[in-house]
Design a protein that fits this description.
Oligomer: heterodimer
Bound molecules: flavin-adenine dinucleotide, FE2/S2 (inorganic) cluster
Largest interface: A-B, 43 and 34 residues
Strand order of the largest sheet of chain B: 4-5-10-6-7
Number of strands of chain A: 5
Radius of gyration of chain A: 17 Å
Chain lengths: ~180, ~300
């Protein structure tokens, strides 16, 4: 459920404040109300709808973005806290036409079905690749990213492939959810 | 009072601790306290659900240089800055080696994204009876450092909660840090267990954080901290007393432990679990902690 009260209380709205950050490699400076969610600023003000809203309460990870290299839930970040930080969204992962290795692996291993969870999965997985985490940590580190469709096996296989683990656990014997 | 919309929230973002403390003091004098905003993982859930009651926030994200990070002191104590996140401390090998229950708790808060943002201080101040890091800190005898423009005072975490979600912090004070003293015994004496619907992204239905000190074959001293068993996280004093001197877990002893527990803790039925389940599981966790901490 999307819970945004922006329209019902506009009379009370505080004046916008200046917030600057680096977004997908570009310096940006905006005038925004300080407590607005980074998620809304990205999708609405900055026309970057790749970041999704699933739950709006930090549970599902569909809104995952990297702030200063760490995966965070954009639905839980008041935009003023982004001052001076470096943000990467799913739109910033590919190098022009060349997909990020995680994106390529999701394509190759069928890591997406409906696609709602995919941007968040890909962003968190890109962090795992960046940190050179072991493939054995995939399910634990992705446990803040919920998928309604895949049953996770294809996602785990995609991430394992991106991590360079040849013995990708394409079908887990236990079949447990991440 | 109706909830406050995101667009109506005022946020000040000081870039020095002195500035932050001055703003807190001014607001407190005007009887319009500023609410500190750290990682926002509790506050934003309140806000996104239309549950926000405050309009004025003091964002601490500009104070990471002063309040972020952690330091090990010469006396072997660990000082955790107010803006230190779970992810930051989880990267510290010494914390894993010396304070395993704090690391187990931190590693089970939410999941990756929450750990990247959430702070230990926020967990303590939020005052949830179902918190995970705060009870581990309590079992380890942690102390809360409160700073205001008047100076600093310290409050043992044991004395910090004054009621359901209320703390000893005054409106002009900020938690600047938490310190965990050097632990008296081997890490084997520390025990942490969180019971939820699954390992990650699950709120604790019942939990035990403990430190059980053994002298030869008998329990010499304990910290038994209960989670989701009362209005606040708390030490179970009758149970701690009943454990002192204990050598074996025979039937009579076990029954006595349960009676002592029932004198301390009267859990509730709620959406996550029942009182009976909580009491029974907690009792079994206490017995498990005794077995697992006993020197072999
Ligand atoms: C999806 C999800 C899962 C979660 N899972 C868990 C879990 O498993 N276990 C658990 O324990 N918690 C969990 N939480 C709750 C939350 O993440 C933790 O309590 C976290 O430690 C809060 O820290 P924060 O920095 O984000 O706090 P904030 O939201 O910024 O603040 C929390 C409270 O502390 C006050 N505060 C913060 N810093 C200070 C300071 N320096 N001085 C004075 N007051 C201060 C704030 O005013 C506020 O009242 C979860 C939250 C979400 C959204
Ligand atoms: S929308 Fe942010 S975690 Fe679900
Ligand atoms: S592909 Fe549909 S939610 Fe994951």
């Amino acid at each position: 459920m999307t819970v945004s009260h922006a329209h019902s209380h506009l009379a009370d709205a505080v004046p916008p404040q200046r917030v600057s950050f680096t977004l997908n490699g570009e310096p940006r400076a905006l005038m925004v109300r300080p407590f607005r969610r980074l998620l809304d600023v990205l999708r609405t003000d900055l026309a970057l709808p790749g970041t999704k809203e699933g739950c709006g309460e930090g549970e599902c990870g569909a809104c995952s973005v990297l702030i200063d290299g760490e995966p965070v839930n954009a639905c839980l970040v008041p935009v003023i806290q982004c001052e001076g930080s470096t943000i990467v969204t799913v739109e910033g992962l590919a190098d022009h036409a060349a997909l990020h290795p995680v994106q390529a692996a999701f394509v190759q291993h069928g890591g997406a079905q409906c696609g709602i969870c995919t941007p968040g999965m890909v962003v968190t997985a890109a962090w795992m690749v960046d940190r050179k985490l072991d493939a054995s940590a995939i399910r634990e580190k992705l446990s803040g990213n919920i998928c309604r469709c895949t049953g996770y096996s294809a996602i785990v296989a995609s991430v394992a492939a991106a991590l360079g683990d040849a013995k990708a656990p394409a079908s887990d014997a236990d079949g447990a959810d991440a | 009072m109706s909830s406050i919309a995101h667009s109506a929230v005022r946020v000040s973002r000081p870039t020095s601790l002195a500035e932050a403390l001055d703003q807190l003091a001014d607001a407190a004098v005007r009887d319009a306290p500023l609410r500190p905003l750290a990682g926002g993982t509790d506050i934003m859930v309140e806000a996104n659900h239309g549950g926000l009651r405050q309009r004025d926030f003091l964002d601490l994200s500009g104070l990471k240089a002063a309040l972020g990070g952690f330091t090990w002191a010469h006396d072997g104590s660990l000082r955790i800055g107010a803006m230190c996140t779970y992810a930051t401390l989880l990267a510290d090998a010494r914390s894993h080696a010396e304070l395993p229950i704090l690391m187990q708790a931190a590693g089970l808060v939410g999941a990756t994204q929450i750990q990247a943002r959430g702070t230990f201080a926020g967990n303590v101040e939020n005052g949830s009876p179902a918190a995970d890091a705060a009870p581990a800190l309590l079992a380890l005898d942690a102390v809360v450092h409160l700073q205001s423009s008047r100076g600093e005072r310290t409050v043992p975490l044991e004395a910090y909660y004054t009621g359901y979600r209320s703390t000893a912090r005054r409106a002009d004070e900020l938690i600047s840090a938490l310190t965990v003293p050097k632990q008296p015994g081997p890490t084997r004496e520390q025990f942490f267990r969180k019971v939820g619907t699954r390992a990650f992204q699950a709120i604790t239905k019942v939990g035990l954080s403990a430190r059980i000190t053994w002298l030869d074959d008998a329990i010499a001293d304990t910290r038994i901290v209960a989670t989701s068993m009362a209005a606040t996280i708390c030490r179970a004093r009758h149970l701690e007393n009943a454990l002192r001197g204990l050598t074996t877990l025979d039937q009579a002893t076990v029954a006595g432990l349960r009676r002592a527990q029932d004198a301390d803790l009267r859990p509730l039925d709620d959406v996550r679990s029942t009182a009976a389940y909580r009491a029974e599981v907690f009792h079994r966790l206490v017995c498990q902690a005794i077995r697992e901490t006993r020197p072999s």
